[in-house]
Amino acid sequence: MKFDPHYHKYSSNRNLIYGKNGMVASTHPLASQAGIEVMKKGGNAIDAAIATAACLTVVEPTSNGIGGDAFALIWANGKVHGLNASGFSPRALTLDKIKSLGFESMPVYGFTPVTVPGVPAAWAEMSQKFGKLSLKDSLEPAIQIAKEGHPLSPTVAKYWDRAFRIYSKNLKGEEFENWFKVFAPEGRAPRAGEIWKSINHGNTLEEIGRTDGRSFYEGDLAERIDKFSKKIGGYISKEDLKGYKSEWVEPIKVNYRGYDVWEIPPNGHGIVALMALNILNNFDLVERDSVNTQHILIEAMKLAFADGLEYIADHRYMKYTAEELLSPDYGRERSKLIGHTASLPEAGEPHSGGTVYFAAADNQGNMISYIQSNYMGFGSGLVVPETGIALHNRGNNFNTIENHPNCVGPNKKPYHTIIPGFLSKDGNPVGPFGVMGAFMQPQGHVQVVTNTVDFHLNPQDALDAPRWQWTKEKTVAIEQNYPNDLALALLRRGHNIIVEAERGSFGRGQIIWRDENGVLCGGTESRADGFIGVY
Fold first, then answer.
1. Which of 106, 180, 323, 405, CA to CA, is 20 to 30 A from 159?
2. Is there a single domain that holds both residue 183 and residue 234?
3. pTM for the full model?
4. How far apart are alpha carbons 424 and 430 in whole angstroms?
5. Across all residues in the chain, what is the average pLDDT?
6. How far apart are CA 511 and CA 448, in angstroms?
């Protein structure tokens, strides 16, 4: 990469981190250390990723859990491999049932938005295909932390307290009692520095490791989920769990100024980032902090999201293919819609032709971009008794518009917001990157890629640079440290600019680049308790 490692334009008081034998960049020190620990025991980057992912379910349950979904982009054996471990909706879930319950849109809490979790399947599949250690060995650090306890980090404590206040207001009924027993045992959220542990969570991780994940889908854990669902009147069943398998998929890409940018194909919205980059290929972006550059970036993002929200769904139901949406000709046509002032985004018609993210790399050439989530913090508010499994609510992203490709229905994957990213050049890996945060994620990916490729920022500066986030219509949220002159200039161009005090809403990212000498260079998120482990 063309960047000056000694120049820091957007300083977060973090230095660049270099490594030779291995590196893990995540949002929590214990998780990164767990990955390095597994590497030192003979594991590779994939084993380290599993250890990190499992550890994050323990130390950052505010964002992810065993009962969530996952995606991964893995560089191994000279190519990028994609894993889609998002789950299907239960076979019993239909639009008619949703409407008969009086819902005009998909609910946030309870069993209705619960789809089959893919996280345990992701760990098992990655371990079997690319790992060097057993799944049991990779999960050991997380098991130990879950059973012995750990002091909460400041950022996690902040979001835990926020979730407790939201759930206290919204979760009414016996089905939610377990959430408060597990995550608020003292009648409140645990505070920063307090020790929190979950022996049941540790036991569940042990069960997953011992059975290579099978217990979750066709064993004791599946029986427990099925029993809880039946008791509460949920839709998910052991038959749904038994029928699930994560999918190896062909990643999609666009070439952006000589670099291949890789994402997982739909049902995820990584394609939104690629569509935006496809549009940006038609512009010369010279200076990052100019109103013209920022305006073009925002407008390209809006156009890409308009298409994404209209067309992304389970790929079996999509009106257009990824190839059609990423056609250079289509990107060129969309770019012509960007004028001098802010526009209201509308979907085009191409012609035929929220979450934890981390990155890991080893000295054997393996690199992984990995993301997993329970969605909206802790997810559905449901915790399977005596397991520590918090079930996600990813089905909330279905809509209830009949005949829409993303309309709720049985055995169907919803529009998905979590996306890993990967960068390569001339057939060689540059490295994994990602920015978590629901609908911020494609926007974060575009900002990281342009910061890196167009403006030559090093990994830490690429993450630290002030971010913007398009929210709807002409409204764009900016961070407090966003240049005031640019904000005023964007206002004059018709953008509705709002300043957000909460930096967490702008996503949390990680980057690892590998240079031509095999040296690893990492950046970690200054908006969280980010940490890079090396050896």
1. 106
2. yes
3. 0.95
4. 5
5. 94
6. 9
- Residues 345, 462, single domain; the answer is yes
Compute the distance between CA of residue 271 and CA of residue 421 in angstroms, rounded to an integer: 10
Structural domain includes residue 494: yes
Q: Residues 344, 372: one domain?
A: no
Count other C-beta atoms under 10 Å from residue 209's C-beta: 25
**Residue carrying structure tokens 């879930």:** 93
Q: What is the pLDDT of residues 86-120, one digit of tens each?
A: 999 999 999 999 999 899 999 999 999 999 999 99
Domain region containing 522: 269-353+436-528
User: Which of 66, 397, 388, 93 minimizes the C-alpha distance to 228?
Assistant: 388
Instruction: Please check whether residue 414 lies inside any domain of the structure.
Output: no
* 215 to 145, 208, 247, 404, 449: CA distances (angstroms): 21, 6, 19, 35, 40
Is residue 375 within 8 Å of 391, Cβ to Cβ?
A: no
Pair (335, 364) in one structural domain: no
390 contacts 410 by C-beta, under 8 angstroms = no
- Catalytic annotation present for 57: no
Count structural domains, the chain: 2
d(CA 263, CA 250): 9
- In sign, the C-alpha dihedral spanning 64, 68, 69, 74 is positive
Q: Are 47 and 133 in contact (CB under 8 A)?
A: yes
User: Which of 62, 115, 204, 355 is flagged as catalytic?
Assistant: 355
